[in-house]
Amino acid sequence: MSASAPGDETAAENSGGHVPPSTEPGAASTGELAGRLAALSVCTPVAGRVLAMVEVPDPVFSAAMVGPGLAVDPMRAPGTAVSPIAGSIVKLHPHAFVVVAGDGRGVLVHLGIDTVQLDGAGFELLAQEGDAVEPGTAVLRWNPADVEAGGRSPVCPVVALDAGSDAVSDPEPVGRWLTAGERLFTWA
Amino acid sequence: MAEVTVMVPDGVGLHARPAAVFVQAAARAPAEVTVGRPGGEHVNAKSILSVLALDVGGGEQIVLRADGDGADEALAAVEKAILDPDAARG
């Protein structure tokens, strides 16, 4: 008497007991995170107006090649950029930083476009690499008006790293004004 | 396993945009691809988070390794993405 149903386990049946743990073919090989993770609220690092990623004036960001997300067109005044999530600052440059949550998900904040060329001028770091941060923890000070006066866009992409294109859920509507630390989108 | 050492061109290094082009080139390859500094720890070249955290600057030497199907082709593609990101973005 057997209740087994041959053929139900197509992946395992001829594996010789060596079943790869990934449930989504290709997910591991593209660097995407596998499995189900809790919804993560990603906050805006700067005060400003919500922009769609496609509106970012840079072909690599706008094509979501760095990853999916949203952008914020910042208020043109001296301001503080804050952490978008709780976690640890794994990389901190004057013009960009990456925060990684406890579950391994990382968010990139890029402060303006081509601002790497400023070599830190106009940016004051308020945190250090390795610091534990909460959403809203101050990371650096800058002035988007100065960036713009220098001929560069101060638009800030906020990017979910190693995420599939469906990672961004419930985004704040394009055009809405937010203050730094308010929820921008949810990483489902 | 195939391996090649490449000098990242002078300039910003493997930061957001060049890193994205590099990671996309690696992700297109069926082979496993890793990147690291000479003698250093290697990370998954298909992970933008890992590559950004590696923080490779312009003028630095990096070692690329590929293993599996099309390893040589994978190395050629990621090397091209490093040396000429604008062309590789295509």
Note the main attributes of this structure.
heterodimer; A: 188 residues; mainly beta; eight-stranded antiparallel β-sheet; three-stranded antiparallel β-sheet; 2 helices; 5% helix; B: 90 residues; alpha+beta; four-stranded antiparallel β-sheet; 4 helices; 4 strands; 23% strand
Question: What's the short story on this structure?
Answer:
The complex is a heterodimer of chains A (188) and B (90). Chain A is mainly beta. Chain A is 5% helix and 31% strand.
Calculate the terminal CA-CA distance of chain A, rounded to whole Å: 45 Å
DSSP helical segment count of chain A? 2
- Binned strand content of chain A: 25-35%
Query: What is the average of the pLDDT values of chain B?
Result: 93
What does this structure look like?
The complex is a heterodimer of chains A (188) and B (90). Helices cover 5% and strands 31% of the residues of chain A. Chain A has an eight-stranded antiparallel sheet with strand order 9-5-6-7-11-3-2-13, with no helix packed on it. Chain A has 188 residues and is mainly beta. The model of chain A is unreliable at 1-30 (pLDDT under 50). With 90 residues, chain B is α+β, with helices and mostly antiparallel strands. Chain B has helices spanning 16-28, 48-54, 71-83, 85-89, and strands at residues 2-7, 32-36, 42-44, 61-67. In chain B, strands 1-4-2-3 form a four-stranded antiparallel sheet, covered by helices on one side. In chain B, strand 2 (32-36) and strand 3 (42-44) form a beta hairpin. Chain B is globular. The model of chain B has no long low-confidence stretch (mean pLDDT 93).
